[in-house]
Amino acid sequence: MVASRETQIYRKDAANLSVQEREKLIKPYLPAPKKSLRVTKRSRSQAVRMFLKTQLHVFVYTLMHILFSLYVRLRQAYHVILDRVFAMLYYHHRAPELIKQDIRGLEKIPQHLSVILDLKEEEQGYAGLEELLDDVAEISAWCAGAGIPMLSVYEKTGILKDHILRTHRVVSSKLHSYFGRRVPSLQIQAPHVPSFLNGGDDSEQTPSSAGERQLTARTNPGITSISGHLSILLLSAEDGRATLVDLTKTLTEMSQRRKLSAEDISLDLIDAEISESVMAEPDLLILFGPYVELQGYPPWQIRLTEIYHAQDNNGVGYQIFLRALYSFANAQMKFGR
Hints:
This protein is of the alpha/beta class. It contains 11 helices and 7 strands. α4 (96-102) packs across α5 and α5 (126-146) packs across α7.
């Protein structure tokens, strides 16, 4: 009786509801409507299109890598063959006469040559230092044979500056193997470090360099110095931007103390101070590494320097040195107004 009475009451209330209100009441209890066939086909076609687009991108990316890798391999093979040909046609055989013959046709040679060398990370320690010293000695002998009076060697860590006396011994020994008894006089120096000179007049020698000359004379008796003079300057990262910062601080303090007016600070003054404290601007800079990377080389000194770099080269070689001299001789220097 109770159920039938409630049913009658519900039917009476439902009879007063509109069609929209009835749908609203039962809509939460109805199952979700199925998607139309047209919508399903559209989603499927979009998925296929996205898949094909992704595969096309992967194919183009892979193709670009294959072509670029092929180009790099061919370029490396070309440079290896070119270096081998140069090594066979032009080799010094530790004879300064052959070096002079190789550069005889050049209209000009640099008076100040600079190089950037690396201490190999995998050979740090005694082996890496020995290889680095040998590279410095070889380049020094090539410069002496070519008549280049000034060589600056940049090594980022400054390990050469810590072993300047040892560097002097290795370079002296290498020059003796090239020139015999007619070795050029040698001076090795570094910013803010005493220089070492041998083979020159006794009046020009410091006590340390005089001792070095005596050591060289004992190890290589009969050496005479009539083949010119070679100066080697050792540089490191602390001689680059840090020098500019220190000079800026010094000029600022002098200006604040009224020891120097702002009008007196000019490019000529800065250039003179940097040239005196570090070095003058080199004519030619040779990069022996595979990439164009200056590694913190003093920036002020290379404003007008000719920079030579051989692609895919990874080591010091006479053929790179010779090609750099030929490139410098054929370069046109346009300084503007």
